[in-house]
Amino acid sequence: MKKTRRVQKLRPTSSLVKNALFNILGNIEDLAFLDLFAGTGQIGLEAERRGAQVIYVEKNPSRVLEIKKKAKGKVIRGDALKVLDRLDIQPNIIFADPPYNFEEYELLIHKSLKALAPGGLFILEHDKRKEFQADEVRIYGDTALSFWRKKE
């Protein structure tokens, strides 16, 4: 019997959430932007379009290939939590959109804040029913964006 891997169903960020996110971020030109759980890469691609230097992190090999076709930034195939441990830069912004059934949110938050540059911003997209001790939370339909600012 052939062993098959379960692939997470993509849940791209809605246009409403994406537009709200970039309105909140404002000018991100020349900032280092890390797109964790990149999926289709749409958030990172928008950040690139706005002048950020983007690093994409995605585990799925076929999605990595698709992102590489579109992106100018570096694309890393790997587990987001492991990549955070071995980054050679301190991003100004980390955006993470893990699957809604993700179970290691607290570890993701901890590692992301540790990896950020001083004054950097960590943004987590998640189901609005999931609550975190964030600096700010914005809700759009069933989706929430939670924000943490790393102290200077």
How would you portray this structure in words?
The chain is an alpha/beta fold and 152 residues long. The protein has helices spanning 15-25, 42-49, 61-70, 80-85, 105-115; strands at 32-36, 53-58, 74-77, 93-96, 121-127, 136-140, 143-149. Strand 1, helix 2 and strand 2 form a beta-alpha-beta unit. The longest helix is centred in the N-terminal third of the chain and has 11 residues, at 15-25. The protein is globular, with a radius of gyration of 15 Å. The N and C termini lie far apart (55 Å).
Q: Nearest-angstrom radius of gyration?
A: 15 Å
Low-pLDDT residue intervals, each spanning 5 or more residues: 1-7
**Overall CATH class:** Alpha Beta
Q: Which architecture would the CATH scheme give at its second level? A: 3-Layer(aba) Sandwich
The topology string of helices and strands comes to HEHEHEHEHEEE
CATH topological fold name: Rossmann fold
Helix content: 25-40%
Any idea what the CATH superfamily is called? Vaccinia Virus protein VP39
Class by SSE composition: alpha/beta
Count every helix, treating DSSP H or I runs of 4 or more residues as helices: 5
**Total domains, how many?**
1
Largest sheet: 7 strands, mixed
The residue-averaged pLDDT reads 92
**Neighbour order of strands in the largest sheet:** 3-2-1-4-5-7-6
| Strand percent estimate | 25-35%
Q: What does the overall shape look like? A: globular
Number of strands: 7
Taking the alpha carbons of the first and last residues, their distance comes to: 55 Å
